[in-house]
Amino acid sequence: MNEAPTTPMKVKFYSGEDIPLELHKVRIVQKLYLRPIDERRKAMEAAGFNTFQLSTPDVFLDMLTDSGTNAMSDNQVSSMLRADDAYAGSQSFARMETAVREVFGTQYVIPVHQGRAAENVISKAFIKPGDVIPMNYHFTTTKAHMEMNGGRIFELYTDEALIIKSSHPFKGNLDVTKLKGLIKEYGAARIPFIRLEASTNLIGGQPFSIANMREVRKVADQHGIIVLLDASLIGENAWFIKQREAKFKNSSIKDILLTMCGLVDIIYFSSRKVSSTRGGAICTSRKDLFLKVRDLVVLYEGFVTYGGMSVREIEALAIGMYETTDETVISQSPSFIAYLVNELDKRGIPVITPPGALGCHVDARGFLPHVSQTEYPAGALAAALFIISGVRGMERGTISSVRDDKGNDILADVELLRLAFPRRVFTLSQTKFVLDRLIWLYKNRGLVGGLKFVDEPTVLRFFMGRLAPTSNWPERLVRQFKKDFGDSL
Ligand code: F0G
């Protein structure tokens, strides 16, 4: 159980084709519906041009997120049957604790109901008003929790991080020179921790290197500052380290994970991504840090042997932890992403390179240069792609940002349409369908216009907000689609 079997990942096709190969078979399936374009347009209108507001029967390929949507393995599903229902002392939790200890190497494991719950508890335990928090890049829920507790976020990404077309292997690195400058300016006492996010989500699923982690650790030690790791996408980051950091070419994923985790003081994660279940955890080997968060978990999440999770999910999480050390599992999503990214890039369609984790990130500013950032090009592109294909992606741009004190949008650094690849969910022909429709949309990109808010929540507005097109562009788009595709779906 502890040593996950791995298959060598290099599979060459005699034909010379460079395509991903599924190293699993499909045994349970879910029927999908591809609705006619008029119905898709109506569904988009009813959803207020926000893909979060769509219902799944209207969606063909759900590429909104990999959060809680990865395919489960047979071992995970079967483990759920032996779940030990108990408020306290559940053996399901004991198995999860053992799994996390073995995979991350941390002594203490505290379950929480999902990633943002960990962020809530950690922010409450460590941040006081006026604190400054350095990180490689923010994540939406992370920023919201840290700011609500009075912290100020500083994103110390490297110069390469926001360059769309790049071959830099580690765009998720934290710039250590900037870190030293920040510590000098504010003083270590105002820095509760340095946060590193594995496979940095909002800049295109880009990893950091172990060399960079070591440099961060060194600076942190010089100033007695804690290092916090958001490990929600740690498996993929470890996979990229094996692929891209020469020193670790021959290391096992298990060893890379232990090396990464050994360089930080606290780890938290959303297991919705790590292991395809719900839940998450906060992990540390330091008793003082464990005690700081433990009682808050009891207050906000539930007893320390379930933390808001069901015992079934806890069992599946435990198996998922071991599976994270299996190259055939963690390479699956990155290899499909790489295929789509490379095919788009070859055709000059703007997309974040090198390919990262989580999804294919289309550069909406490059795709729709005629739509200004205040008219939300990434949101418009997400809506347009859904209308012409039934593919649901997620806006990761200015809609996912916030407004300043004067009520103006704080423009996002990058405007991205994220097409997530939950692990082992989509096939190659489905991926080719996405590619085909994106090629068509790029050719007809001049037809796509902007969006404006008609109903805008004040917190995390991208989830529940409603928008409307700034012109009748959806109608023009549908007309052109029908011209080119006839009665094809
Ligand atoms: N940290 C990272 C890096 C994440 O990607 C997420 C969630 C969270 C924290 C919060 O975890 O959803 O379990 O509360 N990302 C999802 C996404 C929502 O679609 O990218 P959560």
Structure write-up:
The protein has 19 helices and 14 strands. Helices cover 40% and strands 12% of the residues. Helix 1 runs antiparallel to helix 16 (377-389). Strand 3 (132-135), helix 5 (140-148) and strand 4 form a beta-alpha-beta unit. It has two domains: 37-66 and 329-485, Aspartate Aminotransferase, domain 1 (Alpha-Beta Complex), CATH 3.90.1150.10; 74-325, Type I PLP-dependent aspartate aminotransferase-like (Major domain) (Aspartate Aminotransferase, domain 2, 3-Layer(aba) Sandwich), CATH 3.40.640.10. Residues 1-5 have low confidence and may be disordered. It is globular. The protein is of the alpha/beta class. The site of ligand F0G has 15 residues, from helix 4 and helix 5.
DSSP summary, beta strand count: 14
Describe the strand arrangement of the main beta sheet, using strand numbers.
2-8-7-6-5
Shape designation: globular
Mean pLDDT: 95
What name does the CATH topology of the largest domain carry?
Aspartate Aminotransferase, domain 2
CATH superfamily of the largest domain: Type I PLP-dependent aspartate aminotransferase-like (Major domain)
